[in-house]
Amino acid sequence: MSEFSPTPKDKFTFGLWTVGNPGRDPFGKPTRGVMSPAEIVDLLGEVGGVHGVNFHDNDLVPIDASEAEAGRIVGEFEAALKRTKLKVAMATTDLFGEPVFRDGAFTSNDAEVRAYAVQKAMRGMDLGARFGASVYVFWGGREGCESDAAKDPVEAEARFRRALDFLCEYSIERGYGYKFALEAKPNEPRGHMFFPTTGHYLAFIPTLKHPGMVGVNPEVAHEHMAGLNFTHAVASALAADKLFHIDLNDQEFGRYDQDFRFGSANLKHAFFLVKLLEDHKYAGFKHFDAHAYRTADRADVIEFARGCMRTYLILRKKAAQWNADAEVKALLRQCHRPGKDVDALTEKFSRSKAETLLGMGFDRAKLAGRPLPYERLDQRTLEILMGV
Fold this sequence. Notes:
Layout: E1 12-15, H1 16-19, H2 37-47, E2 52-56, H3 57-60, H4 67-84, E3 87-92, H5 111-130, E4 135-139, E5 144-145, H6 153-174, E6 179-183, E7 192-193, H7 198-204, E8 214-216, H8 220-225, H9 230-239, E9 246-248, H10 267-279, E10 286-288, H11 298-324, H12 326-335, H13 340-347, H14 351-359, H15 364-369, H16 374-385
Parallel strand pairs: 1-2, 1-10, 2-3, 3-4, 4-6, 6-8, 9-10
Antiparallel strand pairs: 5-7
């Protein structure tokens, strides 16, 4: 086995909608055949090294399925999981695809739509719990507007809060033990989303009745769509102890939601993301929320899935090389100027520390003249990535 061959211990997962994507886009019909959930699980078993599979409620059971049909599909799915030894790591609810959610789900202006959305989420949670999912993701794909004339954003946020509070209580009452993870996106499919970035959700979570149950599920493509630095968003989540799940893919900045194979568009950004996750010992699931190119056949879809995991593992090794590199260490020593006595003055306020700080003299010219060899540090990073 290669050092870049994944194992289930790496906690890599894929959604039914990722490797099962038939190659359809807004301008073209599918280019691959539709696979059943069981067939998708078997494909992931063929990929090798995958920890688990994730699903939306209606990825697994079609929304209009009869009771008999639902039972058959679930039974086949369970058998495929047993064959491949894959786990269900995360589940979520489709609250965006059906016409009933055209104006939102939890934030809809229609009270009956809001109630239906909560009911649908409860049933999705039941389904996820049946398969042992420990994380439940909420992506508010239609929670937004095209015109601010349509909704009061304060009331919309309150509606979203009430729904999550209710669902937290439902999980507690049923003993599911879910960790809820909220997923942000700046736009698409709505013109304006109510929670466009990970930072918006990190500010929202403390207003909930059960904030300890709720974290975030940041996605590379969603932050890159808005031109933001994804690594910084993940760092904020780590600092707040709220990184409950993560969606890995890739994205050209400023484009539509592309969901490329991880690391395929912005390799340096992917490197610093992997380095951050590894340096801070993130132990959660790493979900590849990506799609193979529309040109791919089944064999190439398998290569797509293997490529996502292989790139992560290669970058994990590169991060270890970067951390151990003698030149990197020397450059960092030039850039980092620790001063325990100085830092101690501002770590915790006291009147005496404030007076000491006010009385200190700082040589601005000397401070401004200290070298910061970031050009060389960045070049050395590129050389490590390029294998030089």
